[in-house]
Amino acid sequence: MNATQLLHNLGQSIWLDNITRDLLNSGTLKRYVTELSVTGLTSNPTIFDHAFKSSAAYDAAIRAKLRNGISAEALFFELALEDLGRAADLFRPIHDHTDGVDGWVSLEVSPLLAYDTASTLVAAKALFVRAKRPNLLIKIPGTKEGLPAIEEAIFAGVPVNVTLLFSREQYVAAADAYLRGVERRIAAGLNPAVASVASLFISRWDVAVSGEVPDELRNRLGVAIGGRAYRAYRELLDSPRMQRLMNDGARPQRLLWASTGTKDPDASDTLYIEAFASPFTVNTMPEPTLKAFADHGEVGDLMAADGGNAEAVLAEFEQAGIDVVALAARLQQEGKDSFNKSWEELLGSIASQRGVAAG
User: Which of 65, 125, 139, 336 is catalytic?
Assistant: First the structure.
C-alpha cells in the first residue's frame, strides 16, 4: 500500500491540483483515482493558462469556437466546463458513495470579480447551473467583498470552494459566511446540506519570508499558520453552533490545504503533505507532489487537534520581525493579483488565435 492510500485510509481526501484535456484523454486522471486514491480535483486560472499554452489538445476547439464570434472569456468557460464536466463524471461514483462528502471538482469565477460582491454571486450561480453537475464547487475568493457572495451562494444552494485564504482570521470569516448561509436555509425551510470547503494556502508563506528569518525558522511558517487554523477548524466542528446545525442536517465545511507543493529546492518535496496529515480535511496536491508522495512519502503522526506547537513557532517569527497579520493581507492581495495576471494571459492567448481561426 503506497503513502497516498495510507493517507486516504486515515481520513484525508486527496485531490489533484490540476486539470488538462491530456490528463483526461490519456486516462492518467482515471489511473490516479484507481492507483493513488485521488478523490477530487481543483483548478484555477493559472492551471488553465498553463494547460492551454502547453498542450495542442485545445487548439482545434478554440479555433472552431472563435469562428462563431464567441468572446475569449465565454470560450474559456465553455472549454473549462467541458473538461471539468468530464472530470466530475469520473468522480461521480465517489461523490455518490460518500453521499456528497467527496468526489468534487472546482471551477473559479473570474478573478477580476474578487472585489465585486454582486457580480461574483451572479457568476457563481450561472456557472453552477451551466455545469449541470451536482459535484462541482464554485470557487469564490475569501476577500472582504467575497464573503457576502459566499453567504448568498450557500443560501442559494450553490456549493462553494472558498479560495485565497491565508490565515486563521481569514478562514474563520469564511467559515462564518458559510454558516450564515446554512442558518438562513434552515430558517427558510430549505435543505441545509450544501457542501463547501475552505482553502488555506500554505507554501506561499515560506516563500514570502525566505531570506528574512534565521535558518532555524526556514520553511516553518506555513506549517505553523496551518496549525493555528486547524485548531480553529476543530474548535468550530465541536462548537454548539455547528452541532446545532448538524442536528438539522447541515454538513460541516471542510478545511482544505492548498498550495502544498514545496517551493524550496533544498526542502523535502513532500514537506507539506506529511505535515498536514489530518482527518476530515482535503489536501489538494500539484501533480509532481502527488507522484512524489506516492513514491517516497511517509505517513507519520497526525496533526494535533490543538495545532501542536504552532503558537510557539509563530511567536518566534514575531520576534524575528514578521507581522503575520499584515503578511496575510499582503499574500491575499498578491494571490488575487497573480490569478488576475494568469486570467489576462489566458484570455490573451485565446484571443491571439482569432486571426488563425479566421484564416
Answer: 139
